[in-house]
Structure formats: C-alpha cells, structure tokens
Write a structure and sequence with these properties.
With 977 residues, the chain is α/β, with parallel strands linked by helices. The chain has 33 helices and 34 strands. A hairpin with a 6-residue loop joins strand 12 and strand 13. The C terminus is likely disordered. The structure holds one RNA strand of 75 nucleotides.
RNA sequence: GGGCGGUUAGCUCAGUGGUAGAGCACUACGUUGACAUCGUAGGGGUCACAAGUUCGAACCUUGUACCGCCCACCA
C-alpha cells in the first residue's frame, strides 16, 4: 500500500544502494559489454570541493544522457573522478594550517606540506563523490580516478616528455603573469580583468590646491588604481626642459629604460634620439621613435619599462633596450632600485614616488581614468608582469589539428554557436605557460646538470642515463652518479660499465630536479584518455575512446575543452569526443551570478533535503533550454516536487483500483477507445522524449513528460477511465486496469532519466503485484513508442474531451453551482457524434456533471447553447438563466468567430497568397472559414431561440438545483433587480 | 575595439516562416473515496523599436535602443 506522499529522504539512499549493489552503473558488464559503447567523462570536480548548483546542473544533464543510453541498451561508461586543483587546494590547506596550526608551508618545508595536503585530500576527498551520489549520478564508481593517481601521473610525465622531445614544450624567459600573493606564475586564462575607476584630481600650479602627500597616501590606500599621473622627465641636454609622460603605474618608472614617441608626432620629432635623465634614479635613457606610441593617448610620449609591461617588453625588443627588473617575487621594490625605495610594497612605493616627484616639481598632474587591472583569479590581487624562466607549451602548433577537427565536423558543439568562441580563441592562441611555483601538483620531470643543461625524462634514473650519455659525448670530465636510492637499484645504466674512463674519474655529477609543478589543466587536459588507462593500451581505452559526449559549461571551453582537443589529437591521433554539449550558468532568481560574497548561493543539497533529488533534477533539466542562463527560483523546485507527488498519487489511484500489470498484455490489441487513445498518446510521448534527448533539448523532453503525465494521463485518462473502473466487472474493466498499469510503466521508464529515485521506487512497488519484474528500472529497456496510435480513437476521445471542456466552461461562465446536475439536449448531431455521445454518455455525464443526455431535433427554448462541431448542445436553464448575460456571451462568441473569418478572408482575397501559398495552407484556410461559418450559424440560431424564449418564457425560480445551498446566490445573480 | 547572446503574459521562460504557448502568480468556484503538494473555469501579450525580404514574419535581413557575457587593449 503506497503512502499518501512520496518521502524522498527515506527512499533515496536505499535506492542508490540497490543500484550499486546490482552493479547497474558498471561499464562493460555482462551482455551489455557486447553492445555499442557510450562514454562520458565527468568534468572532474576539485577533490576537496563540495557540490554547488553548477555541478548539480552539469551532472544532472550527464546523468539524463547516461541513464537514457543505458536504457537504450548501450554499454555505458560514465567515467568519474576528481581533480587535484593545484592552486585552489594548496590555498585551502595553507589557510587551514595558518588558522589551526599557526604555521605555514615554508616553515614546514615541501615534503611535510605535500603530506599535509594529501592528508586533507584523504579527509575531505569523498565529500563531493557522496554528494554526486545524493544527486543520483550513475557513474561507474569502480573506475573512480584522481589526477594525481599513479596512472594519471604517468600519463602526465609521458605527455610532458613527448611534447618536449618534439619541441612543443620549451623553457623560456619572458614576461609572465605573476601572482605575488600565491607566488606563482599563472596562465593568461587565470587572469581576470577588473575595471578600476579613479577619483583623484590634481594639477601643478593650482594655488587653491597645493599637493598634499598625506591625502594622496590616504586615497591610494583606499584604491591604488584608476589614476593617471603625468610625470616630467628632464632632458639631458637641458634640464629645464621636459618631456611629459603619463602612467597609471608610477612605481615602474624605476625600471624605465626609454621614452617612446610616435615617429610622426610633430611635437616630439626633434627629441628623437636625445636622452632624458630618469628622475629619482638618475639613469640616462633614450627617447625612441616607435609606432606603439599613440599620439592621441596620454601625452603622446610613453615611458617604457620592458621588465614590467607586456607592450613595453616588445618595444624593448625592437630597440634593444635593457630590461631592468625592479620588483621581487612579493612585488616589493628590489635592490636594483635606489635605496630609498628598496623593500617597499609596490603600492607604498607608488605613493612615495608620486610624492617625491611632486616635491621635485616633476608631477604635472593627476587625473582620474578608467582602466582594467589584471587580477589573479584565485588570489584576487593585482598580478605583475614579471620576467622569469617558465615552461611553455607551443599551443599554436597543437591548435592546428584541434581547429581542423571542429571545422570538418569530427567534433561538434551543441549549441553550434560555441564553435565560434572556440575558433576565435584557438586561432589567436598564445603560448601556454604551464609551470607553477607551487608544491601541490605534478612536479615537472626536468633535471638540471651542473652546467644548467636540462634533461627531461620519465624518471630520475632515466634523467641520469640521459645526463651520462650527454656528458660522455661532450667528453665532460664529470661522471654521472645517481642521487639517493629510489628503490630501482636494478635499473643500472647499461652504458656505465662500458665507459671505464668515466668510472675511473673521481668526479660526480648531481642532477637537480626542477622544483615547479604543472598547471592543473595540464593533467585535466589528458582526462579523456588518461582515465581510460593511457599510456597503457588498456581494453577500456580501445573500447571507449573517443568518448561520446562531453557535457560542460561555457566557462571552461578554453581551460579544458580546447586542451583536451589538442592533447587528445596529439597523443591518441583521434578526437577525444564527438559532441561537446555546452550548458548555461545557474544564476539566482534575479539573474545574478551566485557567489559567496553576495550571499545568494543556493545550496543544491538543501534543495534535495527539502524537495528531493528528483525535484531538483527535473527542475534543472526543465530549465536547461539551450543558449540561455538558468535563473533558479526555489518555487520552481517546489512545483516539480508537486509533480512528483502527482505521479505518486496516480500510482496510488492505480493501486486502489487494482490496475495491476498483466502478463503478456499487448497494447496493440486494446479495444476500448480510451485505452487505444492513451496507448497512442504514450507512444507519441515516448517518441517525442526520445528525439528531444537525442537533440539535447532537455527542457523539451522534460516538458513533454510533464505534460503527458499530468495533463494527459492524470487529468484525462484516469478521469475518463473512472466509470469503467468503478463499473461492472468484465472485459472492459480488465482491459482498462491492464492499460492503466501498462501506461504507468511506460511513464516510469520515460521519467527515469529525469527522476530516477521515485520512478525506481514505484517500479518496485508496482512490481509487487502481477508478473514478476525482470529487474531494476535502471536497466529496463527504453520504450519504443512507435505504431501504437489510432486515429479513430484519437478523434473520438478528442471529441469527448472537447465536449466536456465546453460544457464545463459554459457552466462556470453561467455560474452554475458545481454540484448542480444539468440535463443536456443534443440537437443537430450527425450519426458519428450521436454514436460518440451514446458510447461515452456515462463519462460525459460524470465529468460534466450532467443528469442526463437526450437527443432532440431542436434545442429546447430558453436554454444555454453550445456549439460542438456540427451539433448544438443545450443546457435547459429556462427561467433561471440571465438572458442578457447569455446573449452577451453568444454575441461575444459570434464576434470572435467573425474576426477569425475576417482574417481568413483578407488572406484569401490576396491573389498572390492564393497563387503562391502551398495547397495545404490554402486548404487549412478554407477549412477554418467553413468551421467558423458553421459555428456562427449555430450561434446565431441559438441567439434567435434565446430571444424567443425571453419573449415567452414564464419566469420560474424552480431551478433544478434549488436544494443546493448555493442556490440563493445563483438566483440573486440571475435576477438583478 | 572584436565577438556572442538577450528583449514574447505580472514573474521565469518555451516557441526556426502559416491559428501566440507553458509553469508560477492572479481571480472565481470547489464536486466525484488518487492527489488541497489538489480539481474546474477564467482574466491577462502592438512578441523592444524601425525599415526591408516574403503571398505571409515573434521567427529571415539590416539598422536603432537597452541589458548581459566573453576576448583584447588601456599612457
């Protein structure tokens, strides 16, 4: 016996365990192992993270696809796993150590710190996995992977070494985005441009406003950005003359090595080739001509600091300028600057330098400006362009085949438009900086010899082998010797014994490993094949690569999708996935991005607790229309929780009416019209949901299911079947019971990808009676949905539903009390309608609250009349009907119909329309006109009868429902004074 | 500066050339042993604006306005 309400919290855990115990999510198991594979690799969440709304959406959509394909019989692998998330995790642990143990990573040392991170990973690593399970994610957890697993780490090494050998990974000294807080280089993608507006205004020589260093310091402390400072640089030849430059970053002037002007800027042509004396520093620097300088910007003359600005770096290259680095890793002024500024933080130095320049009379003015300042996306502090040695991937070369694969359609984006974004970025791709000065991550497999020579290898032992080979061929006086014992004593270099003269030498070389680790995205870029076992030739790799669909948000197309494309094609020589489905962002109900600082974060787990995982999943799927962000309101989740309740109650109804499944029931052989109709509707719905999911229109699929379950099955079929189910026993009742149960089964299957818990639970409950179930719903075959519809049944039930709706409508409009039972007289009905009315009289009476249905040649006088097709249905309300109101109603109906006819007429009057529109459209218009004309005819007849009745009718207060309590109100309305 | 998207009912949004839709909210009424987390009925829209293409435009084209996002630059 089913409870009145579905209680998700009591059911979900049990159901999930049942799936796992049955091995339902296991790829390649049993007979399925022979089927066509379908594979999705999960976008790996941060191992120490917890589930947010973005995960909930992302994984719901994946689960819908995966459950759908599994039911369709495919051998499904949903490959789960987590990401070590270098910077994010390291920062979390550092913060934790700081607050709990009052220590920091530098004090602890690298080894102890990395141990602490592993400990934290062990402690919190299962959180997100368990949360995904609560959502219902049907991943093959037996294949769970982590980017720092032994296998995946081996893949990282192999890729690094491979790319290095091909020259696609190289080390370079150039400007990088340096995060002075986390103390690491970051890639361009990890830089966030934040717009800053200044407010400071000051001009030299304004007697009203003398320069106030204290006020400046105060203002800059509040916001150091957004101000444009004009500095005068005195000419070497004549220190009384100046060239004025404008800058938003005064502190970098300590590293200036030139001033650039545009070669055609007449204001400055005379100065080109001359020198200025850099104030505060005293260095003589040239005035150079360079196109980079824009006469329209600032003063037209621009200071050049090659070591601290990406553009200036290029200018420096062109003019062979020195690169003077004046900042250290903490973005403090370093020893290359004048003593007065050494050790100052960049922003303190800024205010000091501006004040000092002002004191020297070299500050011309300060004006507010708007510019964007690059910030580290994790640390939130302004990044510094900083000159360091880093490792780079030659992305430009790798991008070529990745672009081609999307151009020729081997991989397609859904919605297609995202391929433009992909192309745009890929075609303008810059070298990818992959080294990070962190401790948590894959350490770069590069070793340095005593002379700085780099050996890139899969292992230290191999690096020593390479080093030995190298130095021997170089006739290097040093002999290589491995450092420490790495438990692989048997891996002796074969060369060693063969080179006695090296052995004989007493010198040893020591290789030092690069301390940096790799960008997290380097390892996640291998995810599509490293999780399947690469570099080993595993059976999974053979079977599931290329994977089928990648489901992800647009915010990581560059970070992740692009890199998987490049690395997949490079190492597997095949695309990593054939379809990339890009979904939207989940925002709050006002359309704002959810963020902790705004306090508008909706926790998916709270929603699951409140409404159940099914309700949350259905909401997300129903709102996942392509190309638009999802604004999530709690009320929507509540609404779909109600939908789950509705489904539950439909099952209860079936149970109460003994609608049990019947062995061997063949829907194609049903004979009752309602049954044939609902079976056809179920088939149509199955076909619709199938094609919508295939096209990734999750919202349409969810909508079709919702409409069918609530609007068709519950609202109509169950109502229409009540007279049969509560009527006499017999074949009709048996068939209806079997049909109701069969359709419910279909519903459970169709809803399962969206609402796995409640459907699985109902599958079990409804399986308690009738023939034994084959197994769990999760592994049940998806409905076919073809060839079950029956046109005659559809038309007949359509007529019945139409009649009931119209009668209900007019009852309501005429304020007939709900309980009142009316007598209906049908006139002008043709044989078909008459037969339909007779066949379904019982249920029409029941659902439209009629006492009886009679047939007559003409509608009785003084009745309210409704046009149903060719027939007129009359409700005898003589004497109680408000004639004026009824006349108005009829006139309004006539007016509406006439307006429609007018529309058709104008269209048909257009000769070109008649000539050019397709025949079907013309026919449709003819038909419309005929229908509306007939309707008008009937309505006009009704109006005429009404008038006649009004003239002759004896006023009677004996309404047929005067015993009803509401009769008083009814009569009062009907007879206004 | 370049690119992408949006503007349809009070709200949130579907709708790829042929009769403007859904959910929520709102109003009225509640009856039949599935369901008040419900039922029945109802009101509500110049599809942002303008021009064009077309027999026909919410839909295609161009432009305008406003809103959002991404990329680049920023003296």
């Amino acid at each position: 016996m089913l409870e009145k309400h579905f209680q998700p919290a009591e059911v979900e855990g049990r159901i999930y365990r049942a799936w796992e115990e049955a091995g339902a999510f296991k790829a390649g198991a049993g007979k399925r192992g022979q089927a066509k594979p379908y594979c999705i690799v999960i976008p790996p969440p941060n191992v120490t993270g917890s589930l947010h709304m973005g995960h909930a959406l992302n994984n719901t959509l994946q689960d819908v696809l995966v459950r759908f394909e599994r039911m369709r019989g495919r051998d499904v692998l949903w490959q789960p796993g987590t990401d070590h998330a270098g910077i994010a995790t390291q920062m979390v642990v550092e913060r934790k150590l700081g607050s709990e143990n009052k220590t920091d990573r530098r004090t602890m040392g690298r080894e102890a710190f990395v141990r602490a991170v592993w400990a934290w990973k062990e402690e919190s690593g299962g959180t997100i996995t368990n949360q995904l399970k609560r959502l219902g994610a049907s991943c093959d957890w037996s294949r769970d992977r982590f980017t720092m697993d032994e296998g995946l780490s081996r893949a990282v090494l192999k890729v690094f070494v491979g790319l290095h050998e091909k020259g696609l990974i190289y080390k370079d000294k150039r400007l990088v985005n340096w995060d002075p807080k986390v103390q690491t280089a970051i890639s361009d993608l990890e830089v966030q441009q934040i717009e800053k507006k200044g407010a400071l205004t000051w001009a030299d020589g304004d007697p009203e406003k003398p320069f106030d260093a204290a006020a400046l310091a105060k203002a800059l402390k509040k916001d150091p950005s957004g101000h444009l400072y004009h500095f005068r640089y005195p000419l070497k030849d004549d220190p009384s003359k100046f060239i004025t430059v404008a800058t938003t970053r005064p502190e970098t002037m300590l590293g200036d090595t030139a001033v650039a002007v545009h070669p055609e800027d007449e204001r400055y042509t005379a100065l080109i080739g001359k020198h200025v004396v850099l104030p505060l520093v005293g260095r003589e620097i040239p005035i150079v001509a360079d196109d980079y300088s824009d006469p329209a910007k600032g003063t037209g003359a621009v200071k050049i600091t090659p070591a601290h600005d990406f553009n200036d770096f290029e200018v420096g290259e062109r003019h062979n300028l020195a690169r003077i680095n004046v900042l250290d890793a903490f973005a403090k002024i370093d020893a290359s600057a004048p003593e007065a500024y050494r050790g100052l933080d960049r922003f303190v130095a800024r205010e000091r330098i501006v004040a000092d320049m002002a004191a020297l009379g070299l500050l011309a003015k300060i004006e507010p400006t708007t510019h964007t300042v690059p910030h580290g996306d994790r640390s939130g502090v302004p990044i510094e362009p900083w000159l360091t040695d880093q490792w780079y991937v030659d992305a430009k070369t790798l991008a070529k085949q990745a672009i081609a694969a999307v151009e020729d359609g081997r991989t397609r984006f859904v919605p297609e438009n995202w391929s433009r974004t992909y192309f745009e970025w890929m075609r303008n791709i810059e070298p990818w900086c992959i080294s990070r000065q962190l401790w948590w991550g894959h350490q770069i497999p590069a070793w340095y010899g005593p002379d700085g020579k780099i050996f890139v290898a899969m292992s230290e032992a191999e690096a020593y082998e390479k080093a030995q080979g190298h130095y021997r061929s170089q006739k290097h006086p040093l002999s290589p010797q491995r450092e420490g014992d790495h438990g692989e004593g048997q891996r002796q270099s074969p060369a060693q014994g063969a080179v006695p003269h090296l052995q004989a030498s007493s010198g040893k070389i020591t290789l030092k490993r690069d301390e940096d680790v790799l960008d997290t995205w380097f390892s996640s870029g291998l995810w599509a094949f490293s999780t399947l076992g690469w570099p080993d030739e595993s059976p999974e790799l053979q079977r599931y690569y290329p994977t089928s669909t990648l489901v992800t948000g647009f915010d990581i197309i560059f970070f992740w999708v692009a890199r998987m494309m490049m690395l997949g094609l490079e190492f597997m020589h095949e695309i990593p996935f054939d379809t990339v489905y890009i979904h939207a962002l989940v925002r709050d109900e006002k359309g704002q991005k959810m963020s902790k600082s705004k306090g508008n974060v909706i926790d998916p787990l709270e929603l699951i607790d409140a409404f159940g995982a099914d309700a949350l999943r259905f909401t997300l799927a129903a709102m996942a229309a392509q190309g638009r962000d999802i604004k999530l309101a709690k009320s929507r989740v509540e609404g779909y929780r109600n939908f789950a309740t509705k489904l539950w109650n439909a099952a209860r109804f079936a149970e109460l009416n003994s609608c049990a499944r019947v062995a061997g029931f063949d829907p194609a052989k049903a004979s009752e019209t309602v049954n044939r109709w609902i079976i056809g509707e179920a088939g149509r719905t199955a076909a619709a949901i199938t094609s919508e999911i295939e096209a990734y229109r999750f919202n349409e699929a969810a909508g079709a299911a919702y409409q069918f379950v609530w609007g068709t099955y519950c609202d109509w079929y169950l109502e229409l079947s009540k007279p049969i189910l509560t009527g006499a026993d017999g074949p009709a009742k048996d068939e209806t019971r079997a049909t109701a149960a069969w359709v419910l089964d279909e519903i459970l299957k169709l809803l399962h990808p969206f609402m796995p818990f409640i459907t699985e639970e109902l599958w079990a409950k409804t399986g308690e009676v009738g023939p034994k179930r084959d197994g769990l719903l999760v592994l049940t075959a998806w409905p076919e949905g073809r060839g079950l519809s029956n046109k005659a049944a559809d038309e007949e039930i359509g007529w019945v539903i139409g009649a009931i709706t119209d009668i209900r409508s007019v009852r309501s409009e005429m304020n007939v009390p709900a309980a009142a039972e009316l007598e209906l007289v049908l006139s002008g009905a043709n044989a078909t309608s008459k037969a339909r009315a007779e066949r379904h009289g019982d249920l029409i009476r029941r659902l439209a609250r009629l006492k009886s249905i009679a047939f007559a040649a003409e509608a009785p006088k003084g009745s309210v009349q409704i046009v149903i097709g060719e027939a007129t249905a009359a409700l005898p309300l003589a004497g109680v009907v408000d004639i004026a109101a009824e006349r108005q109603r009829l006139e309004k109906e006539i007016e509406k119909a006439r307006a429609e006819i007018a529309k058709v007429d104008t269209r048909m009057a257009n000769a070109e329309f008649v000539a050019k529109a397709p025949a079907a459209v013309i026919d449709e218009n003819h038909q419309r006109k005929a229908d509306f004309s007939a309707q008008i005819e009937k309505l006009e007849a009704a109006l005429k009868r009404l008038k006649a009745a009004a003239d002759t009718a004896a006023l009677s207060l004996n309404a047929p429902w005067t015993d009803d309590l509401s009769a008083g109100r009814w009569c009062a309305r009907a007879w206004p004074s």
